[in-house]
Amino acid sequence: MRILTFLHSFEPGGVERVALRLVCRWRDQGIDAPLFLGRGDGAMGAELGRDLDPHVPRGPGFSVAGFETLWMIMTLPGFIRRTRPDAMFCAGNSYAVVAVAMKLLLGRRCPPVLAKISNDLERRDMVWPVRTAYRLWLRIQGRFIDHFVAMAPGLEREIAALVRPGAGAISIIPDPALSLDQIDRLRAVRRKRAGKGRWFVAIGRLARQKNFGLMLDAFARAAGPDDRLLIFGEGPERGRLAARSRRLGIAGRLCFMGHVPDPALRIGQADAFLLSSDYEGVPAVVLEALAVGLPVIATECSAAMRSLLGDGALGRLVPAGDLAAFARVLADAPGLQHAAASLAQARRFTLEAAAPAYLDSFARIAARPTEAFLVACRQPIPSTMTSPL
User: Residues in domain Glycosyltransferase subfamily 4-like N-terminal (predicted)?
Assistant: First the structure.
């Protein structure tokens, strides 16, 4: 079986990191798993892509950074025709437009597509006209994409209600954010720290979705003079966030650590892990924090968050975007009361468990002729939809 994965680049991102680890795991198991990239650069290339030998289409003579999606739509059909994969892996929500475009451009010659739903589908952060259009886009995906993966129990209901794929077209495969060996290494880094104050840590791309501005505001409002905040990650919002920290008067207590390989290995002395996102799927960084043994303070940015945090046993949840609530919880950061439970939760989301489960799903959809394109052609797309408000 040949499984084709397509990604924008090696730029750091949770979706891309998980996809690259799956490709490596499948190849270790003897699966033919080609990798297609819109462009070949990015910090994870040296970290995870050394032996992957991705196919990168010859560029148009200038950088395609910023419009990799369009470039992939233009160049991926030819690669599919040449390599004839048995199935394709759509690694996250942002890649669904490429998957649907392949179905339209290739028709019945397009291999079946399995798509992982990597982000919240409700998207309450959107204004209602945009949210209505987004829900229409989800319905279109349900017509064209063959199979969907929910990354945690409970998320399949969201997919069924908003994407509405065909019967039997949803699997639940816990997100392979960790490996058993990685969990052992992460648990080993937990240790006490001498000195005053508390250390708060966060990991994530410095992008608008992550709403690090909310985290900085809450820290400025509730943290003590000896408290520190360390943020691991890089992204387009760094300059704006640095300026914000100076306006808030916390620049001396805030450290931007940049992109580092395996940042979770460096948070073992922290007192709590922070997540301030507006929306997420199953945040891999939360699972890493649980593997380390840190309590979590997070926004309720996903339908999976309550179950991830054991209904409050492993951390505290606040409404997304609620500065006052985030600051209140940060001021009285909880200690982790159930270390064994955090370890057990982390072990549910491993590469060792997920990789064969994905292969089973690929085998099922590759064994039958794809029906999604034909169904989509037969059924009209609804012209009106009920407002989500």
Answer: 12-174
Domains and CATH numbers, the chain: 3-176+352-378 (3.40.50.2000), 180-347 (3.40.50.2000)
Question: Any alpha helices (H) in the chain, and if so which ranges?
Answer: 14-28, 44-48, 68-83, 96-106, 128-144, 155-162, 180-188, 212-222, 238-248, 284-292, 305-308, 323-331, 339-347, 351-367, 372-378
Q: Is 389 exposed, middle or buried, given 0-12, 13-18 or 19+ CB atoms closer than 10 A? A: exposed
Provide the residue type at 189 as one letter: V
Q: What is the pLDDT of residue 381?
A: 45
DSSP type of residue 29 = T
As a whole number of angstroms, the distance between CA 111 and CA 77 comes to 11
Reference 87, options 180, 4, 17, 26; nearest CA is: 4
Helix H or strand E segment including 202: strand 199-203
- Please say whether the beta carbons of 202 and 273 come within 8 A: yes
User: Which residues is 318 bridged to in the sheet?
Assistant: 299
What is the DSSP secondary structure assignment for residue 42, as one 8-state letter?
A: S
Q: What is the DSSP letter of 121?
A: S
What are residue 178's DSSP bridge partners?
Answer: 350
103-159: pLDDT as tens digits: 999 999 999 999 999 988 988 888 889 999 999 999 999 999 999 999 988 899 999
Taking Cα atoms as reference points, which of 159, 165, 158 lies closest to residue 143? 165
Distance CA(271)–CA(333), nearest Å, equals: 8
CA distances from 268 to 227, 230, 255, 325, 332 (A): 16, 12, 16, 26, 20
pLDDT tier at 65 (50, 70, 90 boundaries)?
confident
Quote the Cα angle for 47-91-36, to 5°. Answer: 65
3-class secondary structure, 195: coil
**Phi, then psi, of 116 in degrees rounded to 5:** -90, 130
Contact 236, 207 (CB under 8 A): yes
